[in-house]
């Protein structure tokens, strides 16, 4: 049974950093592109970052370019999202998405 479990969210002050992890089980992530999305209260879910399966090419939403970095470790069946320079507008539930499956999400709150 395919399952994705995110972790690493929390409360952080503006300018701070967090590293999110998404561990997959029940299947190998190696053949798949992997993505992070986020959904803020009252807003639609939006794509934050994507990493390809081959070559590890990446793509980012304009709002996070230069601040967030997506990476993957196929041996650990895990995708990461390193977030730096966090802003209050980054507050959202963050989800990973791969092979048609969503994780349960992890809350990120940026507030002083």
In which range does the helix fraction lie?
under 10%
Number of helices: 0
Helix and strand content put the structural class at mainly beta
Give the H and E element order: EEEEEEEEEEE
Poorly predicted spans:
none
Shape call: globular
What Rg do the Cα atoms give?
13 Å
Percentage of residues in DSSP E strands:
over 45%
Task: Please report the distance between the alpha carbons of the first and last residues.
Answer: 40 Å
Number of strands: 11
Largest sheet: 7 strands, mixed
Mean pLDDT: 96
Write the layout of secondary structure elements.
Elements: E1 3-7, E2 10-12, E3 18-25, E4 34-39, E5 46-51, E6 58-60, E7 68-73, E8 78-83, E9 92-98, E10 101-102, E11 106-110
Parallel strand pairs: 2-11
Antiparallel strand pairs: 1-3, 3-8, 4-5, 4-9, 5-6, 7-8, 9-10, 9-11
What features would you describe in this structure?
- This protein is an all-beta fold.
- Helices cover 0% and strands 51% of the residues.
- The protein contains no helices and 11 strands.
- Strands 2, 4, 5, 6, 9, 10 and 11 form a 7-stranded mixed beta sheet that branches.
- It is globular and about 40 Å long.
Tag the structure with descriptive keywords.
112 residues, mainly beta, single chain, four-stranded antiparallel β-sheet, 11 strands
Short structural description:
The chain has 112 residues and is an all-beta fold.
């Amino acid at each position: 049974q395919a399952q994705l479990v995110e972790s690493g969210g929390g409360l952080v002050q503006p300018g701070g950093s967090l590293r999110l992890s998404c561990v997959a089980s029940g299947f190998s992530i190696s053949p798949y592109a992997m993505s992070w999305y986020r959904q803020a209260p009252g807003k639609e879910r939006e794509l934050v970052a994507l990493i390809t399966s081959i070559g590890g090419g990446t793509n980012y939403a304009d709002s996070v370019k230069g601040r967030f970095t997506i990476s993957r470790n196929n041996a650990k069946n895990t995708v990461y999202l390193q977030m730096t320079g966090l802003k209050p507008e980054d507050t959202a539930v963050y989800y990973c998405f791969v092979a048609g499956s969503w994780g349960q999400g992890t809350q990120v709150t940026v507030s002083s």
